[in-house]
């Protein structure tokens, strides 16, 4: 590796879209025979490329991410044997069985050429379908089995700021598969409107650029609201400080 390859390319940002989350379903009677007696669901947690393979029943996963990801570590609930599981090669996913939902720590370690620290994500394992208004949070097993797989996925973008030249070369040699422009499948269940068809039963979801734009718009609106609230609090603070000074002056005057 030449010295020039270890020079950072300043004022340049390059990103890679990923999704992380899980798919879960009720186990079959055959699967329950080899699982712990209290386990009811089989689930897979994963880190994948955002684009899906056309015709596939998987969410995302069109690209092999090992060109920039070295390892993905999933930290499960402590009740699992060996709860820290590291996946060293694609697909970066883990399949288990269980009965309850819990938070999973996901640690992504990049290849050495990246020169970047590992990043951490958190995902709440979702086993049960999102209930419509008035429905129980955890449906009976026969209802959940009829519902089919439950999907809970989050879109994210890993941004590399001022990358090393050799790492930039690797990234540009492996462009991500573009997302479809418009929805071809249901939206991911976790962002579907409560009680909607997608939230109850809508097949395998797929991320698309329209959803990306909508998410960007939601983030911008959230930033705007935070700015408005911050300004309102600033003005209130100035007003209260003014009142405090007046009271102090009145007390000093006797």
What can you see in these coordinates?
This protein is an alpha+beta fold. The chain has one domain (3-207): Sandwich (Immunoglobulin-like), CATH 2.60.40. It is 27% helix and 26% strand. A 4-stranded antiparallel β-sheet has the order 5-2-1-8. β3 and β4 form a beta hairpin. The longest helix is centred in the last third of the chain and has 45 residues, at 209-253. Residues 193-200 have low confidence and may be disordered.
Can you describe this structure in just a few lines?
With 254 residues, this protein is of the alpha+beta class. The chain contains 5 helices and 8 strands, in the order E-H-E-E-E-E-E-E-H-E-H-H-H.
SSE arrangement:
Layout: E1 13-26, H1 29-32, E2 41-49, E3 69-75, E4 84-87, E5 92-98, E6 103-110, E7 119-124, H2 141-147, E8 150-161, H3 165-172, H4 197-200, H5 209-253
Antiparallel strand pairs: 1-2, 1-8, 2-5, 3-4, 3-6, 6-7
